[in-house]
Amino acid sequence: MALVTNSPDTRGVLFELSEIAVADLSSPLKTVLGQSISTGHNEPRLSTSLVPAVLSRAQQQVLTSSATAPLTLVVGPPGTGKSYTIAAAAIDHLSRGESVLVACRKLQAVDVVTDKIDELLGPNHCLIRGGKHEDLRSLKRFMEQVLHGIRVRSPLYVADSSDLRSHDRDLKDLLRQLSRMEKRLSQELQEEVSWGEMVTDQDGGFWRRILLRWQIHRLDRRRLRRPPIWRSIERYERMLQDSNQLTRQYLKERIDARVDQNLLDHRKELMRFLKSLRSRSSTRQKELFSEIDPRILFGTFPIWLTSVADASKIIPLEREVFDVAIFDEATQCDMASCLPAMQ
């Protein structure tokens, strides 16, 4: 007989699997296990999302699927922007008022996704990163600072809800202008292509050449009445930059306002979470976790990033406390470790 101490990672996974075995399974777990369920997610909760980034068509499809489908698989070779897409999807759900768990197989992948979110959103108070011991220490310091009111505000932070609504209207107005600009630019580009095709088309008889000349003349008159196409493209690019900047600022203002409101309404629960992080005993940590409503915690800090193995150290095992879970490098993760995150 041999007595061998399990690693802390294994102990956490085995404990959580034993808890799941006697619990009501979450909808994602039922989906993965092939059970037919009614998800209620036939369409996004909100008709629009706010992401301060210019995304490819494939990336936009990923965001749409993650907002509508119970399970989405994204496949691509290295360097195709998967980490960037994860960051965009997390911010997309954040803009919808939802919470996100990002679980990675390796801590280096956690670093990459964290950097991408910071790159898109800038320094923010919505993201909690767990994993290495220094990350847990950093999380404790962050919670201590928040609870003592030591925070760096967004440059244009406003606490008045009417100002937030005004910024919301400004952003929606700019997005409508962008939409109209995209349609107009698409039409102008198509006309430029048609003009070039007609100018180079010398085939056909006499009447066809007369018709082509008339069509060219008509397009020329239309083109001369508007700025050159490159001017329109320059204006469009400036509008995109303005939109991304305004979106980033608006999201950060909403984050700051939400943190302030939760600090006002749920300070005791956040203090318990800090105590649980400080606890050296896993039993005591579990007791403190059980006293916290996770939805308050994840409503205050909606994006959580951790390695799959470390999730149990900072997140209570409760059914569907997050709105969405994202697994980076999913094919490198073992299924047993992912099941608690899906729960």
Brief summary:
The longest helix is centred in the middle third of the chain and has 40 residues, at 161-200. This protein has 14 helices and four strands.
Relative helix content: 55-70%
Proportion in β-strands:
5-15%
CATH-assigned homologous superfamily of the largest domain: P-loop containing nucleotide triphosphate hydrolases
Distance separating the two termini: 35 Å
Apparent shape: elongated
**Strands in their spatial order, largest beta sheet:** 2-3-1-4
Any guess at the CATH architecture of the largest domain? 3-Layer(aba) Sandwich
Query: What is the assembly state of the chains in this entry?
Result: single chain
**SSE ordering:** HHHHEHEHHHHHHHEHEH
Number of domains: 2
Query: Quick one: biggest sheet?
Result: 4 strands, parallel
Number of strands: 4
The Cα radius of gyration reads 26 Å
